[in-house]
Amino acid sequence: MIDALPFEITAQIFELCVLDNPSPLKHPAQQLRLAAVCVSWRDICFALGQLWARLNVYKCPKFLEGGTDDDEAELCQMAIAWLSRAGSHPIKLGIHAEERSTTLSYALLPIFSGQISQLDIPLQRLSSVLRGGALPQLKSLCLRCPPSIRLDQDDKGHYILAPKLQRLQLLGYFDTDIYIAFPWSQITDLLIDGPPYSWVHSNFRLLDLEQLETFSIVCEYDYRSPRSIKTLPKLQKFRATLARDADILEYLSLPALRSLEIIGLAGASELPTNIVELGRRSQWSLRHLRLANIQCSRIAYLLDSEVMEFIEELEISVTWRDPTFFDALLSRLRAGALLNLHSLSIKACPITHSMHITELVEVVRLRSEKFGLQAFALELVKRHDWELWKNEVMLEFRELVGRVPSVRVHVHGVAV
Asked: What 3 state SS string does 133-161 have?
């Protein structure tokens, strides 16, 4: 029926409903959904530059070993034609076909370097591809060094001019230095996954990251850093893998820290002590704590520490069947401790008998009624009789939700 209306009317409706409220155009999928309304809206949507300002290239037959030079040239022409329709809109470009990624990089980056705001690209020959290293509008950069890429002499050192860069992500095992020309103080997000800790320490000076708000470091610890305390005044979210004696927590002061996620590796025995010390140096600003692969007895020790009295959201992921943590948690909740806690999530909890479920339900009920626990999530260790046991668990928690409407319960991701 809408197709029967004059184009001017449908265009006016589109302008009033969409262009004056640009939120539906934030993602291409939403724009394509609007294009399906009618022919007129399709023409309008396809003519808008936002639809063409995002391109991700993945592995395809034209990038396999059997592809010819003509196939690569054709794909490059298609990519150029696609991005050219973006007009003046900022471009988000991702190249994930590692085998011959430099072909696309050589074709696209020199042409669109002035428009690219988000770039996800392999490290291979990056400096020569950029031909001067200028990306004036770049705000987010992801550099990948997967095992399939063999770095040559041209990759031993990179210089990237990115004056507006705010988010930097490094994925893979890096053994080459990266020289990125921009004021370090403007970086707000730094995510590192793969390089050894010695490389991280030599390439990044934490004292210069004054505006850093999110810091994630997942790496192998092959180096012990200096013990002088470093302050990141605006860091709000910190994620790290820690081994041995939780080295990095010893020399960070994070006065604005709100969220801490720790993934334990072998030998992280002193972790709880270091978290308490970090909380003290952070003036007890920590509110969200997530711990994974930490020995249950060490987490149980942490539950009795003063830092836990300020935690509002607690997520625990354990793989041991040691009941120490579970008993300590029930004891603390039953005693009315952890008064600020309103959201609790337990994954792979060592609950092996249904009577533990009954006890847990009662503790959550009492806590919700007295102190306002609002959200509770549970992922249980799978058993041989899981389907039967799952039904029993769901019934227990359904009764809880019926008695305490203010609490939300999820069991294995399913709302009760």
From this structure: CECCCCCEEEEEECCCCCCCHHHCCEEEE
Strands 343-349 and 375-380 turn out to be parallel
DSSP state of 122: E
Closest CA to 268 of 221, 328, 320, 319: 221
Domain boundaries, the chain: 1-51, 53-182
Mean pLDDT of 396-403: 77
For 187-238, the pLDDT digits (tens) are: 899 998 888 777 777 777 655 788 899 999 887 766 565 556 678 889 999 9
Q: How far is CA 141 from the centre of its chain?
A: 14
Residue 115, both tokens: 């428009």
Tens of pLDDT, residues 316-348: 887 656 667 777 888 888 887 888 888 888 876
Residue type at 209 in one-letter notation = L
H helices present in 168-224, as ranges: 197-203
SS3 244: coil
pLDDT exceeds 50 at position 167: yes
CA-nearest of 416, 309, 316 to 407 is 416
For residues 351 and 390, give the distance between their C-alpha atoms in angstroms, rounded to a whole number: 12
